Amino acid sequence: MPSVSNEELVRKAVIVSGDLAASGKLNPKQADRFLDYVIDESVLKNNARIVRFRNEQLQIDKIGIGARAAVPKTEAVDPGIRRGISTSQVTLNPLSIMVPFEIGDEFKEINIEGEAVKDHLMKMFGRQLANDVEELAINGDTNGHAVLESVYVSGGDATKYVKDAYLGMFDGWNRLGDGANIYDAAGASIGLGVFGGMLRKMPTKFRRDKRNLRFFMSSDLAQLYIEKLASRATLLGDKSAEGAPHSPYGVPIVEVPLFDFLPPIVEHVTLTGTTAVALRYGPLSS
User: Fold this and answer.
1) How high does pLDDT run on average in the chain?
2) Domain presence at residue 283
3) N or C: which end of the chain has fewer CB within 10 A?
4) Does any domain span residue 271?
5) Which long-range contacts (C-beta less than 8 Å, at least 24 apart) are formed by 33-36?
6) Coil, strand or helix: which one is 92?
7) Percent of the chain topping pLDDT 70
8) Are residues 114 and 35 located together in one domain of the fold?
9) Is residue 83 in some structural domain?
10) Within this chain, do residues 12 and 105 fall inside the same structural domain, yes or no?
11) CB burial of residue 208 (10 Å; 0-12, 13-18, 19+)
């Protein structure tokens, strides 16, 4: 799959006066603020550990006791057994990203906010960056997502697919979940059975304190669950219709707007034209 060169990727998109078109120019008796359409939809950063780097690498040491430590006691007799600990280390390697943009001099002079537009744009790009980082954390896949070149870079080909180098920086949570405790809902409707099945897949030591657990769901899936509860002629149904928070089996639900209802999964296969190819995930949607 072809990829976009660094030169094309970091091509400057200068914000100039022509971008103002018929709106945004300084006219008499006009409001002095732009309407801001960039909404910070990032949620997972509020449920994740944030680490600030001072060096090129960060090593986090872990220590634990993974098995029974106690043995039967006989007075005045050394059991001849000693228990140990288990240690491991997580190495974090930071990657760099950037948001390249440039503001033309004339744009700064004739826009409705004047010089203050710089601060406004910085805040907007900051919110968009938060969304972009969360998208990478969720959908990152070193196998590489395919994306139309026209979507990926300004002026790109509207028919040619290229590798999304941004989402290809590292494996995100969707991909890392492949190596975790997987529960296959087998097409079941969202409900307590699905939540219970997910919990049973976890080792018991991790579900002792359910206050530390979260069910992360896409907005559409969360809405389907709420509608299912709201259809009940019960107090729970009434509260669900009023927007009450939900915690199946004591685990809070966290709605993640940037989660896809059908998450994109990258899998490389070889098509022969005569033999069916079995994919790991289903059902598939075009």
Assistant:
1) 81
2) yes
3) C
4) yes
5) 33/112, 33/113, 33/120, 34/111, 34/112, 34/113, 34/117, 34/120, 36/120, 36/123, 36/124
6) strand
7) 84
8) yes
9) no
10) yes
11) exposed
Contacts within 8 Å (CB) and 24+ apart, 114-122? 114/26, 117/34, 120/33, 120/34, 120/36, 121/15
Q: How far apart are CA 11 and CA 5, in angstroms?
A: 10
67 falls within a domain = no
What is the pLDDT confidence band of residue 254, given thresholds at 50, 70 and 90? very high
Q: At 167, list the tokens.
A: 């989402």
- Number of structural domains found in the chain: 2
% of residues, the chain, pLDDT over 90 = 26
The larger pLDDT score, comparing residue 115 to residue 166, is at 166
Supply the range of the domain harboring residue 243: 190-286
pTM of the model as a whole:
0.76
Residue predicted with more confidence, 274 or 164: 164
d(CA 164, CA 147): 6
- Of 226, 220, 251, 261, residue with least CA distance to 241: 226
Report the C-alpha dihedral over residues 178, 179, 185, 187, rounded to 10 degrees: 20
44-48, 119-123, 212-216, 269-273 — most confident range: 212-216
Which amino acid, residue 123? K
pLDDT tens digits for range 187-214: 888 999 999 999 999 988 888 888 899 9
Q: 58 in helix, strand or coil?
A: strand
Q: Three-state SS for 214? A: coil
Judgement on whether residues 194 and 135 belong to the same structural domain of the protein: no
203 and 117 part of one domain: no
Distance CA 170, CA 191 (A): 32
| Residue 10 to residue 152: CA distance in whole angstroms | 11
**Looking at the structure, do residues 123 and 241 belong to the same domain, yes or no?**
no
Least confident of 11-25, 42-56, 110-124: 11-25
